[in-house]
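[recover] target loaded
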């Protein structure tokens, strides 16, 4: 599967370097119009199976969407824009963060990509005393934050403080653009902690039980981030 990452130069460079290790990937520079409205925009793009858009102008994003190929919006423009986009091309997704995408939607090309990049998935080994013996990243963020921050977990002791530090390290490595609710760095950190704890609970329920009050509070924070509740 061939992927094209389309950017106006601000975002997506690290994702390109990492995604190209797993898929044939091309980097495409797009214009960034200075005006709010860019009429009659002609955008020449190479043929590919999936576009990942990191452009910051909605009219440029629409020009990508009009190519009638599957598109992942790395920078989104809100629910109104997404409805407009889907009226043109239904094979569009705008994940809350690029590390929350799952391989369970209706578009085969996006699912193939999301088997490798998206919602974090881990294999972990935890000692009886709560020390993390090893963590293997099965699926992670396209910006590389999952691999970089998780590499620091080996030999550390599970605690609320350590998990909070892990979330902060995810935020540190994250290259997410901050536009509305899309790619919120703090949400990325929380989602990584959630998935890490799910993996830990799968192999050491006792370790997970010791952190239940922390994970319950974390779930409330995720709900507030996503639903404003």
């Amino acid at each position: 599967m061939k992927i094209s990452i389309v950017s106006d130069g601000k975002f997506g460079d690290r994702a390109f370097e990492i995604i190209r290790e797993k898929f044939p990937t091309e980097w495409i520079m797009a214009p960034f119009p200075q005006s709010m409205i860019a009429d009659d925009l002609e955008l020449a793009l190479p043929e590919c199976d999936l576009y990942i858009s990191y452009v910051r102008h909605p009219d440029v994003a629409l020009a990508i969407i009009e190519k009638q190929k599957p598109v992942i919006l790395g920078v989104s423009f809100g629910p109104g824009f997404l409805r407009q986009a889907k009226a043109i091309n239904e094979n569009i997704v705008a994940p809350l963060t690029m590390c929350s995408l799952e391989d369970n939607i209706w578009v085969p090309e996006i699912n193939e990509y999301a088997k490798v990049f998206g919602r974090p998935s881990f294999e972990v080994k935890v000692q009886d005393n709560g020390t993390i013996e090893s963590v293997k990243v099965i699926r992670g963020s396209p910006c590389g934050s999952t691999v970089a921050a998780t590499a620091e977990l080996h030999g550390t002791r599970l605690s609320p403080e350590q998990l909070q530090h892990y979330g902060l390290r995810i935020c540190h490595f994250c290259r997410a653009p901050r536009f509305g609710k899309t790619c919120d760095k703090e949400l990325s950190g929380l989602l990584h902690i959630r998935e890490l704890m799910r993996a830990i609970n799968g192999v050491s329920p006792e370790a997970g039980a010791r952190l239940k009050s922390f994970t319950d509070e974390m779930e409330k924070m995720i709900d507030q981030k996503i639903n404003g509740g």
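[recover] notes: Residues 12 and 22 are 16 Å apart (CA to CA).
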